[in-house]
Amino acid sequence: MTAPEEFLAACVQFDIASGDVDTNVATMRSGIEEAVAAGARLCVLPELWSTSFLTEFDAGLFERVREADEALRQASEEHALVTVGSSIEADGDAIYNTARVYQRGELLKSYRKIHLFSPNLEHRHHQAGDQPCVVDTEVGRLGVLICYDIRFPELARAYFHRGAEILVVPGQWPEARAQHWRTLLRARAIENELFVIGCNR
Known about the structure:
It is a single chain. This protein is an alpha/beta fold. It contains 5 helices and 9 strands. The strands form 2 sheets. It has a 5-stranded mixed β-sheet. It has a 4-stranded mixed β-sheet with strand order 6-7-8-9, covered by helices on one side. The longest helix has 20 residues, at about 60-80. The radius of gyration is 16 Å and the shape is globular. The model has no long low-confidence stretch (mean pLDDT about 95).
């Protein structure tokens, strides 16, 4: 598939309501509609966009998150979009922070966050992934990172060597370190000569 030379990408940024999946789904939908109205073909959502970070999980929560991911998949299909955003994923006893890449309603690939942010005890509640994610889409070859991953240049460089053209980075980066977030995004773009789209909460 041939990617367009130019297209519009959107960061669907919003303050995630902790644990309130219904509110976050409604906000996601309105944000995507606004982006589509502006002509976007790629929409990146924040990290853990449907729940934010939680420390307690049950079967009902995972079912609501599954429905939220289905709503995002449907939005991708309805608007002929490529979308990327992360959510919690249960696999046996392990819980992952997983980004999914949808294109026109089809799940192309998933990525489990490799670098967990220990200062907020993420490692106590989530399992780290171990597989990088490069995926071909209608808008180009994407390399997927999640938030804290952006601090580790080796992963972005591995994506460069795999031919990635765009790094997409769902995040929940705190305001106190906002300058670090912006600097790291720019650094990964400059050192790899890639476009970088970081969508913060």
